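Continuing the series of single-chain predictions for the mutant panel. This is the parent chain; the variants come on the following pages.
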Amino acid sequence: MVTFDIIKNDPAIRTYIREADRSLEALGYTEHSFAHVTFVAERAASLLSWLGYGERTVELARIAGFLHDIGNIVNRTDHSQSGALIAFRILDKYGMDASEIAEIVTAIGNHDEGTGVPVSAVAAALILGDKSDVRRTRVRNSEISSFDIHDRVNYSATSSDIILSEDKRSVTLKLNIDTEISPIMDYFEIFLGRMKLCRSAAGKLGVDFKLCINEQQFI
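Parent structure:
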């Protein structure tokens, strides 16, 4: 059985993720390396575990999260589709069951807000895990004076967490933003599409999506 630990420790996979992030760094994007993909993997898995999904489905979400940005090694454009194809080749080579490959490939191919749709529970969990990773440490630029809007928004996020309600009826993305660095409106300017996708993803999982910034609920 192909496990998350096998995928996480595969030298070739780690090279692809590292080089994909290097390409994004050259383009001026925030960090998309091991910190990000591990964060996404664990958050997606936690969401499904919280909702009572089976252990293997949780593991598939964890694997999808780790592999989801591997397509950036080809090009940032359509990276979800190219990443899905790369993941297919890797997992097929490992001899993973076709139904499990399908779950992971579908999730990866649908995680980006440009073309993504939460067509499955694993895809929905991956979307929520990916789009909730807003944090200061993803910013590479050390010169605040030269920040673009994406740098400002990520750098202004002093904390980010997913809050799961006790009654399992809602999931809340809770952010604290330093408005001296970036006004809250900037967050909506660049992330509104992502938040709409998160709302759809939460709906696929049978829960409501809420967004709370600086203790104020916006969604």
